[in-house]
Every structure is written in structure tokens, then in C-alpha cells.
Amino acid sequence: MRTKVPFSAGVLAACCLCSTASAADWLQWGYDPSHSSNNPDEATVGADNVAQLTRRYQITMASNANVAPVLARAIQTPGGTRDLLFVTAQNGRLTAYDAFDGSIVWTAGTTTSSPIITDGSPAIDPNRQFVYAYGTDGKVHKYGIGDGSEVLDGGWPQIATLKPSVEKGASALAFATSGGATYLYAVNSGYVGDQGDYQGHLTAIDLGSGSQKVFNTLCSDIEIHMVLNGNPGTTDCDERQNGIWSRPGATYDPATDRIYITTGNGLFNAHTGGFHWGDSVLALKPDGSGRGAGLPMDSYTPTNYSQLDGQDIDLGSASLSILPVPAASTVQHLGLQTGKDSKLRLIDLDDMSGTGAPGGVGGEIQLINVPLSEFWMKTQPAIWVDHGGDGATWVFMANGAGLSGLKLVLDSANKPFLQSTWTQDADATSAIVANDVVYHAGSCSGGNCLFARDPHDGTVLWTSPTIGNLKWQSPILVNGALYVAAGTKLSRFDLGDTGATHTVTPSAGAHGRLAPDTPQTVDDGATTSFTATPDEHYRIDAVTGCGGSLAGSVYTTGPIGADCTVEATFAILTHTVTPEFTTGGSVAPSTAQTVDDGATTSFTITPDVPGGTFEAEGCGGSLKGSVYTTGPVSADCTVTVTFAGDDWIFRDGFELPAGHRSH
């Protein structure tokens, strides 16, 4: 979002590659309160020069992050005026990075370990004095934007859940301003596995007064934060396992002056007078309240809500998107809802179910499949208006199956519908748009990369070097710089000179491989990692080079100061087969044998008494005559030979019972 900030020589020094004409902030997930994922204020990078993007840095973060970063420019810090990039790690730690060079400015927040994690992006309020982050303690924390000092008065930190052991902040924090008040929204769901006494709910925090309202999507007639295993009907709900967990969280539409939340899982019975809103889109006032008596302002629920719940194909894997419509459209306020089932549903936001009241079922304007569908789709659409062309609204739908471009058009009765225009078979996380270029992350040769595409046909305009691991990640592009937090890697790409880079070349010996297997371009002083994978029956022998170290199968270089090579060697796995035998005979060989993984070995068994009997077992083997051969050996094992009692002897060629022996 564009903000007016004082510009000085200090700012120019800290942001020498930014375009002052396009100075903007990316304050929350999806850029704006409606989470369009479109930055119309970008003016530096466009289709004519996007191919010139180069990497300024790639740093290794201390902890894994599955979020999109947010950015505020020209912030006063103890070290001077800087553009700050904020990332929340899964363990709850919030870090402010210098957007220009990736150095850490400050960190804040307590940390936890799995399974108590968060995948929610932080948010910066419009006055740019504070940044908010969801903590794994179930609270929303407020930090001074320049130094990370936490605000501990005025109701802060604010409670988002009283059940942090079973309720997770998986979505981004979001904000909207309405009627002169700014509200911060936090939503909650359960952890992976759908276990425990959790209910989805929205917490709307008035940033001016510090007061908050709670809307529960199960037992919506209870307007408090519920307690774990409390009393149903008063402090807890008799239903459970419904959540709000899409990437953006709550969506605000200034045209309707409502916020929208979408739920996944859980019972739906609002159509019969109940207060459970599983797999539904709910419209609320900006302060988080409904029309009273546990009812939202309006709602939409698909007719197959029972199937969505029973098969765990949550409607709420994405948030509602707001679609600008042509002036002639019979529907003036239009929403788009997708979900795990890879369906696209157009909804009239003035009457969401067509019944004139909340609780209705069905009523969507259009219901179609995503052109490139993916089972359990979990990505958010990007919305773009082609102001430089025909003025049409476009939807870019990314998922593991590919990327689709759909155009909003009117039928002969001026009713809006989505028309599939192009598809690209390339897996993608949630896309964004900036200055009429589509960006997304996805797999590429050697790992994962960022891609820039033409919005009209999906043609690739640029591909980045590798960026790190992907789950929920989406990039941001603001003030001429493209950022992405991918796993433990934070990268920036821009049009300027990236400074010194070096090439790290992987070299794998026989019987194994390194991934990525192509030379990697690494910024001076940065590190990079390779995963060593041996072939079947082999193990990692050694990985060396570039001053690195091996942890498990991952080799991480030291800071790179020159071109270098990482070399991996692999050795055959071996096991020990030990023969054990009783008196009465011999076994050859009689000592432990070293055997390659998957190979066999044999032992020759000879009784002391010719014709004497014996038994042999172990190592999955079999006996043929006097030779015992193991099965394919996959672990240390023992071959045991037992000789029969010495009851017969031979004398002068005749076999005599032992009682006739002479001494």
C-alpha cells in the first residue's frame, strides 16, 4: 500500500535501488485488506525489464518460515533509517531484517518447538509505528517497529486463543480501517491431524481502544474465548474441530464494509436454526460482530457441506476473494471462494445464498472446476484488473497441478462468470501481481525458483536461481525488489548490481548423488546446502569442500569467498555374518564374515563323525548338502550350526554303536 513518508539522504543511502516514484509498503498478506495479492503501486520492475532481475542476497535464517514477509520503508531504527522486512518463523520468533542487505535489525518473541507452531504472517498497522505477530503462546504481540520493544500495556499482548495447545494461528494477521477505526484480525484453527477440543474463531482487535470481539464459528451464540474442555454452552462448545486456516485469514471489502471469514471442517446446522458454521463463508461487521443472537450478517454454505466435512475437503483452505465487476454487471459486489476440492464459486455479496438471510444453503452464481485441479488445493487466488488493456478482472489460480488464468466476463444477461483463458503445467504456490506481471514460486531444475509470467497467457518472462524449500510461501514485490522467505532461506532480487558471487559446483562419485546437482551461484559470504543421497546398498562415505559440515544427509558450506567444489563419495554398506556351532564338527570359514548389503555368503559344515547329522539356521538361509547359504544380508546376523550327539563311531570300516567301543 502506498504511504507518504519523509524522504531524506539517509533513506536514499539505505534504499539506493528503490524507485521513489513507486514508494510503497507491503503491510499485510496480499498487499491490501482485500488480499488481492496485487501491488498496483509498483513502477520499477515490469514486463520490459523483469528479465534483468538478479539476486542481491540469499541469507540463511535461524528458523524455518512458511510465511510471506511484510515490509515497511524508511523506518527509524537505532542503526539509522532503514527499509525493514519482517518474517515470523514457525517457532513464533519475529525477525526484522534490513531489506537492503538482509542483516538482522532485531528479533523478538518467545519460541516453541513442533507441534506448537505458527504459519501466520505478521502485519504492520497503517501508522507504521508497530508490527504485530501471532505468538505460539496463543496471543497477538505488538512490537515497536524500529527496535522490537514489546508493548505490554493497553491490553497487550492480546489473547487470540485460550487453547494454544490445540488451537493454532495458521493464517496471517490482517487489518482494515472502517469508520475511522482500525481493526486487527486473528483467526484460529487446529493443528495438523484435527485433534482435540478446538473451534474456529475470529478475534477482532480495535487498535485504538485495545478492546476486542470474538466470533466463534462453532457455537456462535457464545461470544467469548472458550477454554479447553470447559462447560459446553457456557465456557466451551459441545462441537469441535472446525477452523479458519487459509493464508490471508480475514478479508475486508470496502464496498460492502464487511469482513469475510471462511471455515473448514465441522458441523453445519445454521440452516435449521443452529449455531454451527462448518464449511461456510461468513460476513461480519468490521468490528467482528454479526447481527446479534449468534448470527453473522450473511453467509454462504455449499449444498455439499456434509461431503466437504466428511472427506476433509475444507471450503476454508482459501479465503474469499473480492472481484471488481464491470459497470454493467447485474451483480455489483462479487466474491470468489475456492477450497480443497478445487472448485471455484462466484458469490453475490449482497445476498450470499440467495435467501436474503444468513444460514441459507447454495445460491452461488457459478460453480466450476479450477482449470488445472489439484486434490486438497490450499492456495489463494491473485486478483488483477487489466487497466492497461480492456479493463477486465483476472483471477490467477495456482496449485500443485499448475497455474490458470481466468477472465471475468458478462453473459448475454450481464451476469458475471469466469472464463478459463490459459493454463500452464507448472506447480505453483499462491501467486502475486505487481506492475502487470504475475509472480509465483514453484519447482525448477535443482530445487525451487521464482517465476515471472505474462498475465495474458502465462508465458515465462524470468526465472530466478534456487530459493529454498516451499510449503505455503508466496513472494512480495515492492519498490523494485522481489522478496521470498523459503524454508530457512530469505532472498532478495532487484535490478541493481548484486556484487560478488561465486560458483559452488557439486561433484558426486559413483553410487550416489547430490541435490541440487547443478552449479549454484552463491553471494559472497553466503552459504548453500546440498543433500547427499546414496544408491541402494550404499552409504555416504564423506562429503567435503567449501569449508562445510555434514549433518545427517545435508552438507552446508561455510561462507563462500571463492569458486569451490563440494565432493561426495559413497561406500558399499556391509554387515557381519557370524558362525556359531556346537562341538561335534566344524564350520568353514569359522570366523565372522564381512558381507556387502544385499549379498549372500556360504559356510561348509563338516561333522567329526562321517555321516553325522546336524542342523543349521539363521540369516534367512538354506542348506544344500553340507553347504549353508544365507539369504541376501541386510543387517548383522548369526548362522547357528548344531551337531547331533556322538552316538556312533566307525572302526575298520564298520559302524558300531557307542556301547561297543573299545578303549
UniProtKB/TrEMBL annotation:
Signal peptide feature range: 1-23
Domain Bacterial repeat: 503-571
Keyword Ion transport set for record: no
Origin superkingdom: Bacteria
Pfam families reported for this sequence: Flg_new_2 (PF18998), PQQ_2 (PF13360)
Gene3D superfamilies listed in its UniProt record: Quinoprotein alcohol dehydrogenase-like superfamily, YVTN repeat-like/Quinoprotein amine dehydrogenase
Keyword Protease: no
Start and end residues of each Pyrrolo-quinoline quinone repeat domain: 72-154
Record keywords: Signal
Protein name: PQQ-binding-like beta-propeller repeat protein
Organism: Dokdonella ginsengisoli
